[in-house]
Design goal:
The protein has 199 residues and is α+β, with helices and mostly antiparallel strands. The chain has 4 helices and 6 strands. The protein has a 4-stranded antiparallel beta sheet. Helix 1 packs antiparallel against helix 4.
Length: 199
């Protein structure tokens, strides 16, 4: 693996980075950034992250609608990220629709690294977000947890169309958390953090 590939691996798709805010990640964030993660945890990890604490013990249509809106914004952000990584550019994507500039900073950095390395992604990640908490306030906030599966999301050399070799110790499925804020009527992803934990 070249130095460029290692650098790209350390910065790609919402990964576990030295900086705690990842994109999303890719965010979040996922393929390359997790190259440094140990795969000592298998897919049989405990399920607390996949069964988050309910927002309210009694189901309410308002809570359910808010949870759905949070998940829709998060999913929209991931869809836009996936499109951006597939061409190593955010141009022509809806990234700004549900992703704040703070979260976009990491994504744009990843995309720049990919462009310099001549790399793109093929396929798509599989996400399974669950809302953990929604809090009211001047700016309502939400947190959610996700199990991101990058099995079919492949880092590829743009010229040769061949997969870029990555460390076998990287996590293929990992726990990711996200924070969102409600700006007006829209939920915006403000932070994506990939956890060094398999799911």
């Amino acid at each position: 693996m070249t130095a460029t590939q290692r650098r790209s691996s350390a910065h790609h798709i919402a990964a576990v980075r030295t900086r705690k805010h990842a994109t999303a990640l890719l965010l979040a964030g996922s393929l390359l950034a997790l190259a440094g993660c140990s795969d000592s945890d298998t897919d049989t990890s405990s399920k607390p992250t996949s069964t988050p604490t309910a927002v309210s013990p009694s189901p309410s249509s308002t809570v359910d609608a808010e949870d759905a809106a949070v998940i829709a914004a998060y999913t929209s952000s991931w869809d836009a990220q996936t499109k951006a990584y597939s061409k190593a550019s955010s141009a022509g994507t809806d990234l700004k629709k549900n992703t704040t500039l703070r979260a976009l900073f990491d994504i744009e950095h990843d995309l720049e690294v990919m462009r310099k390395a001549g790399q793109v992604t093929t396929g798509k990640p599989v996400i399974n977000p669950k809302v953990v908490k929604v809090t009211d306030g001047k700016i309502p906030k939400a947190t959610l947890t996700d199990c991101v599966d990058t099995t079919d999301w492949i880092l590829t050399d743009k010229a040769s169309k061949k997969p870029v070799p990555l460390p076998t110790t990287r996590l293929i499925k990992y726990v990711s958390t996200a924070t969102l804020e409600k700006w007006g009527k829209s939920w915006m992803v403000t932070k994506l953090t990939a956890q060094e934990q398999a799911c």
